[in-house]
Each structure stands twice: as structure tokens, then as C-alpha cells.
């Protein structure tokens, strides 16, 4: 009889425990999601431009630098990246690209249209000429900006760019294993699922979404681990970035070769050989075909150049100051 009683009560206890654990997890998720939503709801403005609405934020004073974020980003990612530039005396304009946060996704969301939107934002801010820094999936529109609006560009910096390079037919420009692609396609469609998997499989998520080898993270300094963590946490809320992510994925699936030889702006390109997204060849190829471009390649560091942050900042700041002159733009 006791056995019968226990057999009937155990499933109930398990269900209660499971419900309690889910409740605790969901409460943690709601707390973190509210924080993320509060972060992206402050600090930015909406510019009404001839290219449509564009979200942006401005920080610092000095020569203007337009920061074009990569995948999974927005103005908040741009501001976080550009903190060293602000401290170095530059005026940073960090925008949200098409489909990210409060910038709508238009019918034509091509790199060419996005490049025109970059110019429209500068017009709205009464900036004649600026430097442009971009990373990863921000490269296609940034290269198009250099080609379509050369008079607006003082210098161009491309970090681990998602760009064309000669590859076997049918091979995508961005490398992502099947498991990583499946994980991305599922978790990015749900804030809760992204949050939950991030808690139970943080290493896998960092490899998947930030393209950093696990060994690189394990050997990183405390400061670098904190930098990566801040960037990773800024992916949330993912639903607010989903349209932009899907648009980037469609663009990156079939990147054409641009007329790199026609780019006239002084250009710096930085890549890392162990980038899990496979951008090293693209970075090297792009630098080789832009006239007088400078290429810096690191043997390790993954997609966020972990372990080389201070060097990268120093190189970028030095390049902006020398190639762009003591004061550029207005």
C-alpha cells in the first residue's frame, strides 16, 4: 500500500519541483529582459531622413566617426565598441542598421540602400565628411558607402569584415557549422530560449554567436573575458534585432565582388586567422585590392580579436589621426 502511495505521489512531486524551477528561471529571464529593454530604450534618438527613420546615438566630441555595427548589433553595440574612441577624442555616431532595434527594415534593405542611408544620417546631422569604422556584417554597406559616397569618407576601417573572397563554387562567404547554424536559427527567434541556452551552454553560445574558439576564451585575461561578456549580453533582446539578422543572413549568403579598386579612402583592414566565421581570407583579399590599404592579421583572437584589444584600439586610433588628418569633417 505504501508503495502504491509513493508511486502516485512521486510524479506529482516531480511536476511541482519542475514547475518551481521553471518559475524561478522565468523570473530570472524577465528580470534580465527588462534590463535589456531598458538599456536599448535610452540613449538613442531617431533621425527623420530622406532615406527613412534611422536610430542613432552620439558620444564624445571631436572629429566625427560613423560606427556601423555588425550582426546581432545595434546602436548599443556600436557605443560599447567605440568607448575607447570617445576617450581618444573622437565624436562617435553609432547607428542601428536596417531591421535592428528602432530602425525599420525597408523593402529595399540591400547594402547599396544601407550605404545611402549612412549618407542620409550624416546629412541629418549636418556632417559633411566622417571616418567610418565597421565590423563583421557591417562591411557590405560600408564598402558600398566608400564606393557610392567617396566625398563623404575620410578614412575606412574594416574589422573582421564579412566580404567577398574567391572560394570554391557553392561555398558561402561566412562559415558556420551545421550545429551552430541550427542553434542560431532556433534561439534567435525567442528571447526566452536564447536566455535559457545562454545560461546552460555559455561556451557554446559564445562560439556560435561571437565566433571565438573556446581555447582562446579560456586563455583570455579577466578584462578580455569581461569585454566579451558585455558584447554577448548586448545581443539581448534578440527579437528586437531579428529582422536585421535575417536580412544580414540573406545578404551574406551570396556576397558579390565589389569594385574594390575604385575605393579612394585610406583604408585599414584587420583580420584574425582563427575567426570561426572564416573572415580572414575576406579581410586579406579586401585589403589586397583596395589601393594602398593596410592589412593587419593576427594568428588568433577569434571574431572579436580577443587578446589583441589594446593593439587594435591603438592601431585604429593612430590610423584615424594620421590618415584622416588632425581634424576631419565638420
From TrEMBL:
The keyword Transit peptide does not apply. It comes from the Bacteria. Coiled coil: none annotated. Signal peptide: none annotated. SUPFAM superfamilies: alpha/beta-Hydrolases. Residues 63-304 form the AB hydrolase-1 domain. GO terms for molecular function: hydrolase activity. The chain crosses the membrane at residues 6-29. InterPro entries: AB_hydrolase (IPR050471), AB_hydrolase_1 (IPR000073), AB_hydrolase_fold (IPR029058). It holds the Pfam family Abhydrolase_1. The keyword Transmembrane helix applies. Keywords: Hydrolase, Membrane, Transmembrane, Transmembrane helix. This is Alpha/beta fold hydrolase. It comes from Methylococcus capsulatus. The lineage of its organism: Bacteria, Pseudomonadati, Pseudomonadota, Gammaproteobacteria, Methylococcales.
Amino acid at each position: 500500500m505504501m508503495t502504491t502511495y509513493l508511486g502516485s505521489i512521486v510524479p506529482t512531486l516531480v511536476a511541482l519541483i519542475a514547475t518551481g524551477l521553471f518559475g524561478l528561471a522565468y523570473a530570472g529571464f524577465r528580470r534580465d529582459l527588462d534590463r535589456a529593454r531598458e538599456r536599448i530604450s535610452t540613449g538613442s534618438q531617431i533621425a527623420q531622413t530622406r532615406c527613412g527613420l534611422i536610430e542613432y546615438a552620439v558620444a564624445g566630441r571631436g572629429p566625427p566617426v560613423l560606427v556601423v555595427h555588425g550582426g546581432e548589433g545595434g546602436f548599443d553595440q556600436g557605443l560599447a565598441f567605440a568607448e575607447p574612441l570617445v576617450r581618444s577624442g573622437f565624436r562617435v555616431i553609432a547607428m542601428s542598421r536596417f531591421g535592428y532595434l528602432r530602425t525599420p527594415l525597408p523593402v529595399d534593405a540591400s547594402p547599396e540602400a544601407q550605404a545611402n542611408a549612412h549618407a542620409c544620417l550624416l546629412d541629418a546631422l549636418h556632417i559633411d565628411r566622417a571616418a567610418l569604422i565597421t565590423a563583421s556584417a557591417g562591411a557590405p554597406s560600408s564598402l558600398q558607402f566608400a564606393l557610392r559616397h567617396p566625398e563623404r569618407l575620410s578614412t575606412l576601417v574594416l574589422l573582421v569584415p564579412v566580404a567577398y573572397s574567391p572560394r570554391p563554387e557553392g561555398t558561402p562567404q561566412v562559415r558556420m557549422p551545421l550545429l551552430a547554424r541550427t542553434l542560431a536559427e532556433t534561439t534567435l527567434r525567442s528571447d526566452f530560449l536564447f536566455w535559457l541556452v545562454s545560461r546552460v551552454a555559455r561556451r557554446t553560445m559564445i562560439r556560435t554567436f561571437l565566433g571565438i574558439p573556446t581555447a582562446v576564451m579560456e586563455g583570455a585575461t579577466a578584462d578580455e573575458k569581461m569585454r566579451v561578456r558585455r558584447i554577448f549580453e548586448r545581443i539581448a533582446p534578440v527579437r528586437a534585432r531579428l529582422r536585421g539578422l535575417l536580412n544580414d543572413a540573406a545578404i551574406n549568403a551570396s556576397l558579390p565582388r565589389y569594385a574594390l579598386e575604385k575605393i579612394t579612402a585610406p583604408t585599414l583592414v584587420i583580420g584574425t586567422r582563427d575567426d570561426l566565421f572564416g573572415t580572414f581570407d575576406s579581410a586579406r583579399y579586401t585589403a589586397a585590392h583596395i589601393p594602398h590599404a593596410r592589412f593587419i592579421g593576427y594568428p588568433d583572437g577569434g571574431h572579436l580579436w580577443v587578446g589583441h584589444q589594446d593593439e587594435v584600439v591603438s592601431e585604429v586610433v593612430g590610423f584615424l589621426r594620421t590618415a584622416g588628418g588632425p581634424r576631419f569633417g565638420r
